[in-house]
Structures are given as structure tokens and as C-alpha cells.
Amino acid sequence: MDIVILAVVIAVVVLGALGGLIVGSRRKKQLPPPPPAAPDITAPPAEPHVGDEAETPREEPRRTIEEVDLPDGSAPVVVEEPPTEAPQIEIPEPTAGRLVRLRARLSRSQNALGQGLLTLLSREHLDDDTWEEVEDTLLTADVGVQPTQELVERLRERVKVLGTRTPEELRTLLREELITLVGRDMDRTVKTEPEDRKPGIVLVVGVNGTGKTTTTGKLARVLVADGQSVVLGAADTFRAAAADQLQTWGERVGAYTVRGPEGGDPASVAFDAVKEGKEMGANVVLIDTAGRLHTKTGLMDELGKVKRVVEKHAPVDEVLLVLDATTGQNGLVQARVFAEVVDITGIVLTKLDGTAKGGIVVAVQRELGVPVKLVGLGEGADDLAPFEPEAFVDALIGE
């Protein structure tokens, strides 16, 4: 029995050894051939080395974090902005004798009124038809009916007494009568320097299209030229860009402009302008109001409100009505309505250089009983001139 078991064990061992030899031979046959050797490729010498092929960095001196000055975080980093250039301040022309320098601008009025009258009065026989032509000339120039009748009556008397009439005698005669008509003795000073306080307060009023905002800016130049400091109040909050326009005028001569939001309360802006003028120690505050249509009762009432609110600071020294000389008699209608709302103290006639109606100076003074104080004779910055009766008449009748 033991012999049989031993034989079986030997047989199993022999069979296992034979199986291992067969499997090993099969694996050796399935192995892939070794890969071929890689070709020797030379890289172009000019190509830079990057990534893993980069050259080993050279040793360079480096600063440690202890050696670098870092901000301590206590103060914020301030980035300096390039300085902005301040607007260049202009020096306006002096106002003394400005109307004399601008007399050529009255050439249209000169031809229609002054030279027309001289031509008629130079006729050898002055009959009734001639005097009617004199009247027509005066009325066409918007002198007005009552002033025309007065002037013609005085001229007829003096020509009759004079007898012979040389051109020089006629010119002297006409000059004297026209100066009397315009008003030699009226006070035409713009009241900007009250004795008991500062600043003087000037309210500028007028309808749309008369050049009111531009006139306010030019008046600022007139005052600066006379050595006064000015604050501008942009109380015309209804017209688009009116405040920008006035501020531009002010910046050109160094005048500060107080303005409010578009469509805001004009009275509030006017009040703040006077307050600012007091704090700054300015000589004058000029307040530009909205260009009221004289047919809008509500707007005219608001203009009265502006004046009342300003007078909570101090009385208004001047209320200047700006009139367009080219509107003629229609300007008188405007003047009447404004005079009912605020106490007009002076008149500014604009566009006098573009009209043959120089007689409007006489008519508007007669209508309101207040003097023409300033006249606009062009579109230039310094074309607003204090009104001088003698220089005006001399410009009308020529040399």
C-alpha cells in the first residue's frame, strides 16, 4: 500500500514539472522585439531654449524681503493727477470814453436821423412840407410823437430867428436840440457802490431774445474794468445752458458764479448769490433773471418774488431793463409791463448798432422816466458802453 502511494506522488511531481516547462517556452515566443535606437538629431543653434531644455540660470545677487522698503499701510497711496490749467483771466478795456471809440457803430442811425435832419434843414426854403418831412424822419427813428412835436417846434423858432443858415450853424443848432431831447442832466451812473454796505445788488431783467444774459456778462466786464470785484447769480434756471453761458463770461474776468439746478427756484439762486457776495466781500452782485415774456402774468409775478427775496439781505440798488433797440415801439410795451412789476432804475439798449431807430433812446426815457445807462453796440466782449448823451448825438449827426 505504501508503495502505491509513493508512486502516485512521484507521478504528480513529474507531471507538474513538465507543465511548467511548456508554459515558459510559450511566453518567450510572445515577447515583442526591442525598439530601434533613436536617431541622432541636432537642434538649430539659433533656437532659444525653453521649458525643460532651458539653460541653468546664472547666479545673480538678490534682495531679501528684509532689504526691500514696503509701505507700512498706515497712510493711503496718493496718485498725483496732472495739474489743470486755470482759465486765463482777460483784462477788459477801460470804460471811459468807450462810446466815443464805438461811435462808428451808429452809422445806420446816423444816416437815418442825424444826416437826414441836416439835409432837410439845409434846404433854401423851409416850407410846411419840409417840416412835415422833418417830423416823419423823427417818427421813423422812433423818437415818439410828443418828443417829435417838441423838437420840431423849437427848431422852427430857432431857424426863423437865425435867418441865414450855414452848414456849421445848422449842425450846432441840431446838436444842441438833440442833446436837450436826449437829456443832458439825467443821472446815468450804474449804482453799484452803496455807502453803508457791500455788496451793491443789481438785478437784470428783460424778455427773451434781448441779449439779457450776454449783457449781464458784459456788464461784469465793465465793472471789473473799473476795478470792482463781481459775483454773478445765474437765476435764469429755465433756459437751457443759461447758467453755463453766464459762468463762461464770469470765468473770463475772474468773477465767481452762483448757480442752481436747471428748473430750480430762481429766487433761491438769487438769495444765495447775495449771501455768497457778502461772505466773499465782493463789491457787486449781478443777478441774471429768466427772460420773462411780458404776456405771462405768472412769470412776471415770480420776477417780483425774486426781488422781494433778495431784499431780505439788502435793498436792490439797480434794476436794469434790457431792451432790444430793433423792436422799436414794441419795446415800450415791454418796458411798461416790467415797470409795473419792479421799480426800473435804468435801461440797457442792445443792438443799437443794427438799427436806424436811434430815437428809441428818447422814447423809452420819456415812457419810463428813467435814463438809458448802457448801450450795446456790437457782439464783441467790450461793446457795451456807458451812455453819454454828447457822444451819442455827435455820432448821430457826424462830423
Descriptive account of the structure:
The protein has 399 residues and is an alpha/beta fold. The protein has 13 helices and eight strands. An eight-stranded mixed beta sheet has the order 3-2-4-1-5-6-7-8, with helices on both faces. Strand 6, helix 12 and strand 7 form a beta-alpha-beta unit. It is rod-shaped, with a radius of gyration of 48 Å. It starts with a helix and ends with a helix. Residues 27-31 have low confidence and may be disordered.
- Counted by DSSP, the helix tally is 13
Beta-strand level of the residues, as a percent range?
A: 5-15%
- Rounded mean pLDDT is 80
Element-by-element helix/strand order: HHHHHHEHEHEHEHEHEHEEH
Q: Note the gap between the termini.
A: 171 Å
Radius of gyration from CA coordinates: 48 Å
* Shape designation: rod-shaped
In short:
The protein is an alpha/beta fold.
Topology:
Elements: H1 2-30, H2 98-101, H3 107-121, H4 128-140, H5 145-162, H6 167-182, E1 200-205, H7 212-225, E2 230-234, H8 242-253, E3 256-259, H9 266-280, E4 284-288, H10 297-310, E5 318-324, H11 329-341, E6 346-350, H12 360-368, E7 372-376, E8 384-386, H13 389-397
Parallel strand pairs: 1-4, 1-5, 2-3, 2-4, 5-6, 6-7
Antiparallel strand pairs: 7-8
